[in-house]
């Protein structure tokens, strides 16, 4: 089939899927006043693939000479990772810091099961890697959109999946095994773009123990499969089409839906993990490696936008030469460029999977980069708000500005630096308000894993033996331990003078 058009993507969503939004069953997700924003945003993927300016980056020819989406390709070297990163960056820059969601998250889940399933096969004698490859080819041949269903609803966070008290379905689990497949039940939360995706790729969200093996399950399923119900998150979109007051949130609706699996049948050929509990955590962890690279890539583009808004606001307010403003702009520049550099470094220093030709982003660098930008995001928006001033909180709406009775008054009294049109200043204020909302604060902190998850990963990956060896050498502690880097080093200071 090759790459699809945007219209072919829209047509594919008319498939009887069960979706609810704002208390109502949605029969047509493409033309729904809110869900259509998500559909249009996701369709950008297909529009760009048809654009000659971007086609060579986003696609490549397959064995049949047809163009296919590059993101379905396994990542085999740092060049592949760097190209994947450039694709995410392009998506993010075009979509105001929010990459088009048609394949954005789930590509990282596909890469995760691609890396991990051969490990399972080698230990357990399964054939999951072939299932993954067959599924990958199917997705590529049909150029389908897909969402990653990872985060379980969890129930009592203090109890493991199999120890839940109210019921056993807080995590997606296998409730029946048949000769030709499995039946699953449970629910996933915060599943971005699920109501507008063709397929759902399901993976575990945590490590499991043997008692939890029914929850150690990974599979792919069409979004319209019998037994699947999706409930859309409450939209942030307040006034669809009002790009003056809501330049970001009226352009992008990330539909973070709850996905309920009510005894859904999954054929064997679409199963990638079925009770091999030792590998559930491996898949979750590997997804984190890939998705944190995606996170720092798009967030670097979003930080370009935020830092640019701060610099432009300083000019519009006539304060660009004030020392405290320049210090804030310098700090924002550091955050933006460091996030960009660390994302690239995670590719340059990628890790090769043993007994494989596959690679994945450097986990230490990827986790540090994600923690760095998310931990500093609130400080960044604080600086931008400080530069912009209290007008961010109290500006009248576009309706007042467009009202002939109040337009001249607003033009006169909301003006800033001479020569700057008042409308430009007001539009920029609204952009800053949209980018520094509570929604943006929360999603930056928790998307791609909470800060606690990054801290745990960084501590687990830390080479404390190397750090301690450096300290022992400087303190002249000789306790009989050797280190390959520090033990061979010559003594210092060297007695070189005569």
How does this model look, in words?
The protein has helices at residues 6-12, 35-50, 55-58, 78-94, 106-124, 128-142, 280-317, 323-348, 363-388, 391-394, 398-402, 404-413, 422-435, 438-446, 451-461, 464-475, and strands at residues 19-21, 24-25, 59-61, 67-69, 146-149, 173-178, 181-192, 199-202, 217-222, 228-231, 256-267, 271-274, 351-352, 359-360. It is of the alpha+beta class and 498 residues long. It has 2 domains: 6-279, Beta Barrel (Butyryl-CoA Dehydrogenase, subunit A, domain 2), CATH 2.40.110; 283-461, Butyryl-CoA Dehydrogenase, subunit A, domain 3, CATH 1.20.140. α5 (106-124) packs antiparallel against α7. The longest helix is centred in the middle third of the chain and has 38 residues, at 280-317. It is globular. The N and C termini lie far apart (79 Å).
Q: How does the SSE layout of this entry go?
A:
Layout: H1 6-12, E1 19-21, E2 24-25, H2 35-50, H3 55-58, E3 59-61, E4 67-69, H4 78-94, H5 106-124, H6 128-142, E5 146-149, E6 173-178, E7 181-192, E8 199-202, E9 217-222, E10 228-231, E11 256-267, E12 271-274, H7 280-317, H8 323-348, E13 351-352, E14 359-360, H9 363-388, H10 391-394, H11 398-402, H12 404-413, H13 422-435, H14 438-446, H15 451-461, H16 464-475
Parallel strand pairs: 1-10, 5-8
Antiparallel strand pairs: 1-2, 3-4, 6-7, 7-11, 8-9, 9-12, 10-11, 13-14
Helix pairs in contact: 1-2, 4-7, 4-8, 5-6, 5-7, 7-8, 7-9, 7-13, 8-9, 9-13, 9-14, 9-15
């Amino acid at each position: 089939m090759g790459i699809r058009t945007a219209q072919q993507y829209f047509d594919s969503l008319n498939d009887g899927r069960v979706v609810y939004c704002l208390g109502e069953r949605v029969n047509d997700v493409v033309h729904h006043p809110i869900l259509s924003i998500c559909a249009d945003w996701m369709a950008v993927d297909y529009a760009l693939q048809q654009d000659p300016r971007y086609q060579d980056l986003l696609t490549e020819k397959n064995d049949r000479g047809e163009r296919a989406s590059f993101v379905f390709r396994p990542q085999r070297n740092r060049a592949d990772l760097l190209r994947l990163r450039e694709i995410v960056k392009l998506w993010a820059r075009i979509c105001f810091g929010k990459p088009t969601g048609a394949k954005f998250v789930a590509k990282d889940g596909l890469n995760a099961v691609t890396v991990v399933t051969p490990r399972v096969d080698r230990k357990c004698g399964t054939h999951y890697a072939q299932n993954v490859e067959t599924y990958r080819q199917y997705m590529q041949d049909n150029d389908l959109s897909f969402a990653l269903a990872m985060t379980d609803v969890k129930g009592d966070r203090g109890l493991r999946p199999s120890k839940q008290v109210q019921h056993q379905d807080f995590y997606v689990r296998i409730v029946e095994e048949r000769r030709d497949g499995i039946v699953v039940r449970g629910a996933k939360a915060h599943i971005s773009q699920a109501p507008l995706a063709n397929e759902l790729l399901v993976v575990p969200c945590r490590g499991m123990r043997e008692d939890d093996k029914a929850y150690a399950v990974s599979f792919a399923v069409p979004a319209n499969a019998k037994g699947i119900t999706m409930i859309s998150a409450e939209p942030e979109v307040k006034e669809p089409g009002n790009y003056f007051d809501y330049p970001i949130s009226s352009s992008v609706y990330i539909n973070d839906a709850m996905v309920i699996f009510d005894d859904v049948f999954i054929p064997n050929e679409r199963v990638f993990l079925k009770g091999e509990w030792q590998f559930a955590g491996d898949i979750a962890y590997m997804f984190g490696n890939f998705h944190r690279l995606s996170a720092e890539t798009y967030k670097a583009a979003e930080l370009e936008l935020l830092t640019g808004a701060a610099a432009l606001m300083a000019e519009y307010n006539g304060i660009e030469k004030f020392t405290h403003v320049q210090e804030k702009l310098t700090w924002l520049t550091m955050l933006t460029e460091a996030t960009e550099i660390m994302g690239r470094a995670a590719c340059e220093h990628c890790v090769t999977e043993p007994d494989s030709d596959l690679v994945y982003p450097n986990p230490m660098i990827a986790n540090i980069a994600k923690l760095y930008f998310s931990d500093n995001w609130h400080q960044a928006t604080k600086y931008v708000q400080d530069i912009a001033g209290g007008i961010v909180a109290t500006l009248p709406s576009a309706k007042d500005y467009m009202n002939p009775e109040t337009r001249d008054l607003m033009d006169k009294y909301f003006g800033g630096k001479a020569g700057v049109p008042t409308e430009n200043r007001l539009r920029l204020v609204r952009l800053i308000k949209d980018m520094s909302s509570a929604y943006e604060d929360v999603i930056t902190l928790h998307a791609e894993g909470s800060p606690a998850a990054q801290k745990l990963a960084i501590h687990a990956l830390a080479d404390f033996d190397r750090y301690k060896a450096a300290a022992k050498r400087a303190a002249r502690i000789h306790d009989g331990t050797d280190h390959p880097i520090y033990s061979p080093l010559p003594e210092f200071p060297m007695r070189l003078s005569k």
